[in-house]
Amino acid sequence: MNVSGLPQGWQMAALDEVCEVIQGQSPPGDTYNDSGAGIPFFQGKAEFGPVYPTVVKWCSSPTKIAELDDILISIRAPVGPTNLCPLQACIGRGLAAIRPLGGIPARYILYALRNSESDLASRGTGSTFAAVSGAELRSHRITLAPLPTQHRIVAEIERQLTRLDAAVAALKRIRANLKRYRASVLKAACEGRLVPTEAELARAEGRDYETGAQLLARILRERRIAWETQVPNVRKRKYDEPQPPDTSRLPELPEGWTWASVEQVGRLQLGRQRAPKYHQGQHMRPYLRVQNVFEARIDLSDVMEMDFPGDDATTYELRSGDILLNEGQSPELLGRPALYRGELPGVCFTNTLIRFQAAGSLCVEFALIVFRHYMRAGRFAAEGTITTNIAHLSLGRLSLIEFPLPPLAEQCRIVAEVERRLSVIQDLEESTGLNLRRADRLQQAILKRAFEGKLVPQDPNDEPASALLERIRAEGTSAKQAAGMKRHGGKTRYRRRGKA
After folding, report:
1. For 1-144, which CATH superfamily applies?
2. What is the reported pTM?
């Protein structure tokens, strides 16, 4: 080992000592396109893949060009990620191209930069987003091994990473399959295919049972009685009977089930609007918004407060058993539901959320299953209206969406079976996520060992890195001299001392 802790013959080098560094520059906006005119145009990290970027734009008048196998490095928002350039391309100001000199393998520099990515990223500055200057990038130091060792390092890194990549790909397939299985469990639960139906059990046991249609009639009757009890002077007000769904295009349900509408089986309410006048006041309360409501989970890590004066606190205070659905979201997440279980007493909610309060004879956990299925299946998105990239689910549209209603006893069995299966899926997902994180750490460990000189055997007969550096410097000097002679007609001009 030498004094730096590196193997004999190794040394540290600034990037511009071993590479040409070309900073990107954005061409005029009217020169790039998505129709394939010109050469590919890479702008930043968003286009990067595991090794090569994806071409999504082209440029007809490039300003800065990267060549085949140049290393592309993101130098702003974020700093440090790398790819290899797959062909000649234009590069924007979010990138720099790094071109190895002296026969250094491009992938050696690629892996050296990936090994030191966190160090380079820590040097990024900027109030809006991090960026590194050209000077910072050129002075960034990497570990330089003897040239023959570099080739052995690249070969061994790629051998080990190929096996690791195969394992990561398998883990990602497992994660995708678990996601599909979760969706299929929710779908089967809402179609009566997850547990034996109450009709089947009652027939086998020779007993009667309350059908979904009878349950719905009881729910509607109980709602009417509750309204008449609570509302004075009933004769002066008209009771608004909840509307049934349009069943003309709905599939047939299992025996003993019936179709209802969301408003028939529960009460819907939009939250209180946020406004500047509520930012301060004497009745400050915590409230939930879209950012707090995830699928089957409420996140209380970022809860805000506003004033709920008068009856507002009573009107908008959440009660244990309320289901909250996102009123505005990206289309694929519209209606994302979670069950409030009293996690934060006294909390209210805003009009970015819709509250569903299940009827007394409906299992609220079953309603949550239905809503999770509808979110994943795009049923809520089908009823939403889209403005820019955000979809909205109105109270009126949600209220008339169909709701599959099985007998109450069957609802309870469905909930228990869904929870059992989803808990298994959750355990497998956590295990998969843990193994993916381990794979990422293992990848970093492989790179670390490689650039500490511990991944491949060292050959004392290899030409040291210092000789490689000297040759690169000499080649650079010769190139500059040749360029100078070319500018002066092939003759070297000398200036005599003391004369102009």
Report:
1. DNA methylase specificity domains (3.90.220.20)
2. 0.82
